[in-house]
Amino acid sequence: MAGIHNPVMTPCFKLLPLAAFSACLATTARAEEFSFEKLKAKAREMAAKPHQPSPLKLADYWKGLHYDQHRDIRFKMDSGLWAEEKLPFSIDFFHPGWTAKEMVEIHEVAGSESTTLKFDQKLFDYGKNKVPAGTPAPDGYAGWRARCHLNTADYMDEFLVFLGASYFRAIPANSPYGLSARGLSINSGLPGVPEEFPVFTEFHLKRPEKDAKSLTASAILDGDSVAGAYQFTITPGTETVMDVEAEITLRKPVQQLGLAPFSSMYWFGEGTWPKPKDFRPEVHDSDGLLMELGSGNLHYRPLEHTHNRFRHCVFTMEKPRSWALLQRDRSFSSYQDIEARYHERPSVRVEPVEGFDLGKLHLIEMPTIDETGDNVILVWDPQPALEVGKPFKFHYRLRWMRDPAPSGLFTVRATRLGTPVQKPDQLLIAVDFAKPLNPIEKVGDPKWDDTKGWKPVVTLNQKEAKLLHVGMDDMSMANVDDLPAGLGRSDKLHMPQVLRAFFVIEPPKDLGQIDMTCELQDAEGKAVSERWVYLWMKPE
């Protein structure tokens, strides 16, 4: 994905003769007293001064590595930090080069003291690379990743990576990597406005106790417009939970500040037409944004292919409970990709703790022609705008997970757009709502809820648009036909209840877009589903 390298593609180089690099072997610097409060004070001092470029140097040879050369540099996993001590976590380091030219300082925190870990060439296997004699070793590492016994007791699985600017990713158990997070974004996705990429310049990794369940890492963030300090407390598991505490100070005003930012990819899905010429039905890391308002109401916005459009939606929110980028479609048949495993990509939820009382949630969707770059950005812009020179504290929790816990409401599962037969000027929209699977009930059993009197309620925010028809179908039995032959009629098969809301809109010819919502309500007018929210844009 854009801005972060695949952490599993760890590079590898042919080792120099011992004499050639003996002078570059790691040496341990003097230990210094450390606390997160001291780190925040350091960041405040940095913010009061103009931004200074990193003093860490990288020789031209390392800068000039191409993809295959860099990929051939591999970290020796048995040399990981704390690996020999059999502690609950082990840390691998990334070698700088190719696109990973920025370096970070790595420190180990033991007790109240932090010690610098100098770059050590002995930790890497350089593969087929022939490093010219006399080439200086890098001054630092490109980043790091963490391992633990996430899935089995026999192997320490990678579950967390920090690599590239302020990018990081984590995974829950039995999951591949998917979308990326960042420490901070500035002017992300604004047309004609240069984006600024603040960088994590140093990390302080706390040595875990033998029975530790969590890993703690503190960091300095530095950029042209901002400096700050971050502390990450990461607990891997079925959900990998990450507490992020931070304090940032602006050096100068910015047009759009992004807290708790995400980058994801959406190329095409069930609502994309025409589809790219690809054998797979869908390709995306995430397929929807779920927002839990301060009232507890759930709003769901599906992601979509924007063709050649730039789409920017803003949701003003007061004291939100959470928001999440979800990979909601978990059916392998929807993707047909054994290697990428899109059906297993993680979802991530943000739970605000401090500093998120009022703000704007920006969802930015950009055109893409393939799956190699992130084209979806999600950021929280606090309101009012931060003052230059005034420290701002915030705290949020990330849950890297497969799926959120059931809410008890019908959830949005698919959005399909088209036109009624022989009426090309009208818009037909179908929204599928599914109740979470109940393992007790079987196909053919009574409905989990009495849906008599239920109806979809549709709103259009543009008065010029005409709502011509609204209806609802029960799709529960029809969905059985989507299963492989021989399974569809099994009396042991459990299927979710699916209700399809559909409606027809007549947009005026001079109307370029329509904001709309749809939710299911029972006979008493109570919402029994998430509220589907959507921005329709007239095709060019």
Structural class: mainly beta
Largest sheet: 15 strands, mixed
Q: List low-pLDDT spans.
A: 1-27, 484-489
Percent of residues in beta strands: 35-45%
Shape: globular
Named at the architecture level, the CATH assignment of the largest domain is Distorted Sandwich
Total number of domains: 2
Q: Major sheet: order of its strands?
A: 2-6-5-13-14-15-16-27-24-23-20-21-34-33-30
What is the C-alpha radius of gyration, as a whole number of Å? 25 Å
The averaged pLDDT comes out at: 90
Number of strands: 34
| Distance from first to last alpha carbon | 28 Å
From the 3D structure, determine the CATH topology of the largest domain.
Answer: Beta-galactosidase, Chain A, domain 5
**Number of helices, where a helix is a run of at least 4 consecutive DSSP H or I residues:** 4
CATH class bucket of the largest domain: Mainly Beta
Helix content: under 10%
Explain what the structure shows.
- This protein folds into two domains: 13-401, Distorted Sandwich (Beta-galactosidase, Chain A, domain 5); 411-537, Immunoglobulin-like.
- It is built from four helices and 34 strands.
- The protein has helices at residues 18-21, 36-47, 60-63, 67-71, and strands at 13-14, 32-33, 74-75, 90-94, 105-110, 113-116, 124-130, 143-148, 157-163, 167-170, 180-182, 185-186, 199-206, 215-222, 226-235, 240-250, 257-264, 266-268, 283-284, 288-292, 298-302, 311-318, 322-326, 347-354, 358-365, 376-382, 392-401, 411-418, 427-434, 455-460, 466-474, 498-506, 513-521, 531-537.
- The strands form five sheets. A 15-stranded mixed beta sheet has the order 2-6-5-13-14-15-16-27-24-23-20-21-34-33-30. Strands 4, 8, 9, 10, 11, 12, 17, 22, 25 and 26 form a ten-stranded antiparallel beta sheet that branches.
- The radius of gyration is 25 Å and the shape is globular.
- The chain starts with 12 loop residues before the first strand and ends with a strand.
